[in-house]
Design a protein that fits this description.
Number of domains: 3
Largest sheet: 9 strands, mixed
Strand content: 5-15%
Helix content: 40-55%
Number of strands: 12
Oligomer: single chain
Number of helices: 14
Radius of gyration: 29 Å
Structural class: alpha+beta
Length: 529
Amino acid sequence: MHYQGEQYHMAVGNREQTSQWVAPVFFAFAFLIATLPTLIVLSRVWLSFDGSFSHGFLLLAVTVGLSVITWRRTRPEVGFYWPWLIPFVLSLLVYLSGRILMIETFQYLALMPILGSGLLLMWGWRQTVPFIIPVGLLIFAMPFWDYLSWPLQVVTVSINQLMLTPLNIEFVVEGVFVYFPGIGAFEIAHGCSGLRYLLVGVTLSTLYGELNYRFWRSRFVLIAMGILLSLIANWIRVFVIIYQGYETEMTSSLIADHDMFGWWVFAATLVPLFFFGRHLEKREDAQVARESSATPVQGNAPAARKSRPLVGGVGAVLPLVLVGLLAWSVSPSPQAGATSSTRPHEVQLVDGDQWMPLFQKRLHGWQPEIVKPDRILERTYKQRELAGEELGTGDGLFIGLYSYDYQRPGREAVQYENRVTGSRDMRPEQTFTVNAGDGVQLGGLSLRDRKSGEFIHLAYGYYVEGRWENTELQAKLAQLPGILNSRSDASLLVFAVACSECDEMEELSSMASSIRPTAQSYLDELYNQ
């Protein structure tokens, strides 16, 4: 009888131990299935190896490994901590609204709160604390950090302006452009913001702190140092490239191919970072030694908690499953309204009696570089009265209209690969604004061909969900007011003139007052259906 009793207690203990890992595994599986459409899109972002989030899969592997190690060390007991049901449900509703409204930022913002509040619902605060860093590392691979690009670009320009001033170099700064009169100009573009270095630096600092520190204070200090050194690395990289361009009159190979140079500069900044991290580690060890010698050892073990694995597992998984099913059934298909191919826009934006279309899509060798639009219009025109002359000797007009039926990674109006400036041979010379009527201001840019010296003057604007914007940051943020309407489209309108005997600014303003309203009416009719 005694032997049978021992067998019974061992069987009960094994079932209880098994239930402690079945619930979180089941929750992870339910999370994967419920958010699968968003995770598929996220994986495509991580597979863009020249993007800011190419470290995503590596970070996922680190997260899984650290989480398993932490679970085996702490063995948290599953219960049902009902106060955490409120943030859990709220984060699920944010995700659901993002799926229905096709706002991917909402979906990305909700992923980590869903994961974190689900664990809190099963394990409670004290048992979840050891998992904050292992699981939270994934936040540094979420694409919503792209909204930091523009502020980082502005800061980078300001810092380089301070660094260039003592060198007695003649330059002019306008927005994110640095002009060297008579030589050329640099655009501190999205890739020069330093976002990639910042995210990698923060990730490494956080991971180092998790593996080596006991106190949160040391972790925060190291993260702050990682942020600072990552930004400094990017500022140095941009300064060296700009200075090399100035000294070599834009002929240095570093200007066209500077990615590897940037990573070498960043790697150099990791050396003082880890020396500083080691210093903090030694200081912690000394503090722990002093505290352990002064504090008596407590002999009373904490009281065991009473777990409810079944209730906790169901409480965390059931809302997730319900919202996942609702998101799959209610939200539009990822391919709704769009195909994998690019279709032409069927619209005439200029007066056909005055302008004659040409069988080419470039204006003096220039055209915007836009990646995978759902709909496209690219046409070059010449005034009919100059029909018998070469394009290079008369007035020329280029019109480009690039539309995304809905924005998603790899197909966005604002992304690193999309360049209004087009060819690397075209150098920005001047920025300005163009009045397009009805209070709409378009961005303006003068480009000079580095080889021929010819100028092209262009105007551009982003029409996002019914709103005109003339900067990349505003175009990104314009998705948020779109919650109030049923549209999810984004378009980029670009038109450029090249003329030898005209006032370019007056010509652009005249064009803008007719092209912009025509394009807007066409897009409203197309996407309001």
